[in-house]
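Final report, closing paragraph on structural work. Over the funding period we assembled a curated collection of sequence-structure pairs, and we close with a single example.
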Amino acid sequence: MLIINNFISSEQQQSLFEYVSSNQMPYRIYPTYNFGQNDVMKDKVHSPNQFTHFLYMHGEEKSSPHIKILRPIFDKLQEKCGEITMFRAKVNVTYPYPPYMGYQSQVPHTDMAYDDGRKVPHQVFLYYINDADGPTYFYNENNELIDAIEPKMGRAVIFDGSILHAGSNPVRFPLRFALNINFRKGKDQTP
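Its predicted structure, as stored:
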């Protein structure tokens, strides 16, 4: 796991936050159902809903007109990782949710899997757009907590997509904005 503070310049951080928190960025309520991806968690389970804006989905004809906000991050990510193939990019917005007011973990999951349940080899880039509370938790294959990363504006976390992880809802802050990019090193690959 690689943690990088101030992944982009402070001016770029502020510009990105202002854009995604303005009324020009449309979100929809995204029901967050996850299917069990290990022996501990096998059934479909529900996490708190979140607001989401999908910027890009591999294989779809059109991406969001707001994808331009990714340019500074995408350039920096390629600088760090070399040429990449992006599979998915989205902005998630979580908010205080009464049943989750003690920083309880949402459902541990991996972001990408084939229809038969096999994990898609990929990397995850998680970028915190604003200062907030509600850590991201990381688990081993037995669902045991191995790490927790606090959201901080400009902080990026890059990790192997096979690692179980889960967000948590903010308690003291009204909103928690996070950018999630799923990618693989190399060009023009399919998931």
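The helical segments are 10-20, 71-81. The longest strand covers residues 84-94. We thank the funder for supporting this effort.
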